């Protein structure tokens, strides 16, 4: 790597947040060493030392210095390696602020309720989470329209190039495809959000996306096994309660 920079990414194959960083690195043409983390049973000492506050992935280690949180890492990559590849953020200060706003919106208004839609404790909570995720997707549809994409032809949130918002949302696409396979849920439904559905197909077709996004079949297999294990644990706990 130019300048002797050493990059190490602490991540997990199933984490969309780690996928964001991988996408950003791929788009910038940067090489790095990937260190897979066991988030369920055995977090490494390197991870705990590098991210002592949250103790989670992703963490980018650049020449021994750790950077945490996916969106912050992407911005760091863009600034630290401005010489490499296209910029993820526009040069105009207002446009940069707008991109940061929508990146935060995706995490706060789409990801959080979407996760609640399949991890909620009650069916009501799950249903409410899904409706909130759909509402957020419709808002993002309007944001994409403002970026100049018409009738789903051409263009990204970053205009004619992929930017911060595209990578932030694009990192979720394996999860979106897996959700459709497992439950028939389409977060980016052509009937509700035609521009986003077309954007999704364009993003999936990017070389960086093909190289980095986790395999959908692998994700479906993992989530199916996880759901069965959780259901078995819940059943066992219920049986134990009844036996008391």
Give the CA-based shape: globular
Distance between the termini: 63 Å
Which blocks of ≥5 consecutive residues have pLDDT under 50?
Answer: none
Examine the coordinates and then state which fold CATH places here, giving the name of the CATH topology of the largest domain.
Glutathione S-transferase Yfyf (Class Pi), Chain A, domain 2
What is the string of SSEs from the N terminus onward?
A: EHEHEEHHHHHHHH
Number of helices: 10
What integer value in Å does the Rg equal?
19 Å
Biggest sheet statistics: 4 strands, mixed
Indicate the mean pLDDT: 91
As a percent range, the share of helical residues equals: 55-70%
**Tally of distinct domains:** 2
Could you tell me the number of beta strands? Answer: 4
How much strand? Answer: 5-15%
Q: Strands of the largest sheet, in order across it?
A: 2-1-3-4
Q: Assign the CATH class of the largest domain.
A: Mainly Alpha
Structural class comes to alpha+beta
CATH architecture of the largest domain: Up-down Bundle
């Amino acid at each position: 790597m130019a300048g002797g920079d050493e990059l190490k990414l602490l991540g997990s194959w199933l984490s969309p947040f780690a996928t964001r960083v991988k996408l950003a690195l791929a788009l910038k043409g940067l090489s790095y060493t990937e260190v897979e983390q066991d988030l369920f049973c055995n977090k490494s000492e390197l991870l705990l030392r590098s991210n002592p506050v949250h103790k989670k992935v992703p963490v980018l280690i650049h020449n021994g210095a750790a950077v945490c949180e996916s969106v912050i890492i992407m911005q760091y990559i863009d600034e630290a390696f401005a010489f490499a590849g296209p910029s993820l953020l526009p040069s105009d200060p207002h446009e940069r602020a707008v991109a940061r706003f929508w990146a935060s919106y995706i995490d706060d208004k789409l990801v959080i309720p979407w996760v609640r839609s399949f991890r909620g404790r009650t069916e009501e909570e799950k249903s409410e989470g899904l409706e909130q995720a759909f509402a957020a997707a419709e808002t993002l549809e309007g944001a994409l329209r403002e970026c100049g994409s018409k009738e789903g032809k051409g263009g990204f949130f970053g205009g004619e190039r992929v930017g911060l918002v595209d990578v932030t949302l694009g990192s979720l696409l394996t999860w979106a495809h897996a959700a459709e396979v497992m439950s028939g849920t389409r977060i980016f439904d052509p009937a509700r959000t035609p521009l986003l559905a077309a954007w999704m197909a364009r993003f999936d077709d990017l070389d960086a996306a093909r190289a980095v996004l986790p395999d959908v079949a692998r994700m479906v297999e993992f989530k199916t096994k996880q759901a069965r294990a959780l259901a078995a644990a819940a059943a066992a706990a219920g049986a134990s309660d009844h036996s008391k």
